[in-house]
Amino acid sequence: MAKHHVSATVNGDPVEFLCETEDTLLDALRDSLGLTGTKEGCSTGDCGACSVTVDGRLVCSCLMLAVEAEGKAVATIEGMAQGDTLHPLQRKFLEHAALQCGVCTPGFLVAAKALLDRSPEPSETEVRYWLAGNLCRCTGYDKIVRAVLDAAAELRGA
Question: For domain 4-79, which CATH number applies: 3.90.1150.10, 3.10.20.30, 3.40.640.10, 3.40.30.10?
Fold first, then answer.
């Protein structure tokens, strides 16, 4: 079976990879590009652990075919920090102890960033609604919500 050649931009860098027709974007990110920050949780789009943005839209990378990334801009957890400087969301997750095992954390961070890019001053209800597609088995969601609201305030300069 012939492999497909895909050219895309991942975290601002042009990339090329080969994939099978049935390979998911998650497969390509982890296996072809070595970006293992995006986690595989359920493989059915129910847990949000594999959340990335594609052309600014939040998607479950386990549900998107890798070939669909052709010409698209993909952002993963690896693109969130600037060198050694953590994004405010990453810092606030640490400060608020909003993580434990870490499997869900990259998906929560990517989803939260997508929210704050759209809505810099979200209400608690809006944060909870936006993050409803991300599941965590270890923490209560309150610390995650508080971290997102705190990061939003910092990003606004409040």
Answer: 3.10.20.30
